[in-house]
Amino acid sequence: MAIATINPATGETIETFTALSEAEIATKLELAQQAFEQYRRVPMQQKSQWMNAAAKILERDKEKFGKLMTLEMGKTVKSAIAEVEKCALVCRYYAERAAEFLADVSVGTDASHSFVRYQPLGIILAVMPWNFPFWQVFRFAAPALMAGNVGLLKHASNVPQCALAIEEIFEEAGFPTGVFQTLLVGSQQVAAIIADPRVKAATLTGSEPAGASLAAAAGKQIKKTVLELGGSDPFIVMPSADIEAAASTAVTARMLCNGQSCIAAKRFIVTEAIAEQFEKLLVAKFAALKVGDPMLPDTDVGPLATPSMLEDIDHQVQECVKVGAKVLIGGQPPAERAGNFYLPTIVSQIPVDAAIAQEEFFGPVALLFRVADLDAAIQLANATPFGLGASIWTQDATERDRAIAEIEAGSVFVNGMVKSDPRLPFGGIKHSGYGRELSIQGIHEFVNVKTVWIK
Ligand code: NAP
């Protein structure tokens, strides 16, 4: 994949970049290693100061960074600006809490004094996706850097300018040169970087094949990985729910990032008793969405990031139709638009045993399923290879508790949409990956948990 900025709303190539050569990568690795030798000794207070400075820069230039994201991958500018604000939040969160999360923990044993100490590992490689070009990077970098590691970013090839802008933010914030570097490289160059002995661990957010490939390369070198991969999150609506609130949130949860979010609600599992009502509301709300130029403040749904994302989602909808599903609204690109646009779409009556029902739909397409009761809802919720998030809408405490206990996912949200929050751990099980980002769990992923025993 060429490293280039191509406007998804128009198809226009704005700028292309040349991938780094082996020699250039070697120079950056050496710089990162040298930076780590100094940076690992920097006091927490100083790191907090730099991280807070990064937050200030993000807030100062949120419109500029937001527009850059919109230009490169097509999310609506209002959501892009909100994403930059959230990055500032995660920087401040770890600037404030890292000292507490990484403090020595005393443990009573047969020693005079024994304790656990958290120490940095060194260079961490982050392979990141284009769908949240800033947020995905900052939620890795803020805890990793506060823990004393140094970061190398291999960003998705379609967001090179975002990748370079993030490197500049850390530099301007005061972090020493080499503590955070962007590598403009293709995915085929990743395995060699992981194999370098100076790289100690890696994290990847992206698709299952990319995650498997990175984990295999890291496994060969006995290096730790964290994987945040795809999802096909269920959104269950029970009869006791506030149906209007559930339907409104369903639209937001599905259309997040023009439908291209790992934690977007993708399968709407609705009990028969309220299915008709929910379906009507959802169709009306989808019909009211404004599809168009993502740079305009009142646009609800922009284009998909690349022509191949558009091709994939259209193909998946056609596959649903082939196995007998009904398209309630949308189901094709809008006739009058260039760029990678797809109409907000609802597909219902998909046979639950069809292979297509197992797939992740990465675009503005909602899959609607009707079920008899909670047993059937939970069974269907768990019937995919994924296990990222899940949302259930109910006022019934027994139903709520059963969903929390029985849904196979990294998170369950009750009467709300799945979302990430710096204070809560984020990640999945099954093919959605392993490891956690954010919160105390996130900062503990890339540290040496050192046992100290003193007599
Ligand atoms: P992708 O193709 O996997 O790309 C993600 C990143 O991995 C990019 O930087 C890409 O580089 C790189 N990459 C691709 N193949 C690789 C390989 N074999 N070895 C090493 N690196 C490789 O994913 P995508 O299609 O852009 O993103 C969509 C997927 O990401 C969806 O499945 C979505 O659910 C998932 N996602 C998950 C989360 C989460 O937190 N769980 C968040 C966002 C997205 P190039 O761009 O150069 O190919």
TrEMBL record:
Any one GO molecular function term: succinate-semialdehyde dehydrogenase (NAD+) activity
Family to which the UniProt record says this protein belongs: Belongs to the aldehyde dehydrogenase family.
Lineage top rank: taxon: Bacteria
Protein name as annotated: Aldehyde Dehydrogenase
Domain Aldehyde dehydrogenase: start-end pairs: 3-452
A Pfam family this chain is assigned to: Aldedh
EC numbers on record: 1.2.1.16
InterPro entries: Ald_DH/histidinol_DH, Ald_DH_C, Ald_DH_N, Aldehyde_DH_dom, ALDH_GabD1-like, GABD/Sad-like
Source taxonomy: Bacteria, Bacillati, Cyanobacteriota, Cyanophyceae, Chroococcidiopsidales
SUPFAM superfamilies: ALDH-like (SSF53720)
Entry keywords, A to Z: NADP, Oxidoreductase
Keyword NADP: yes
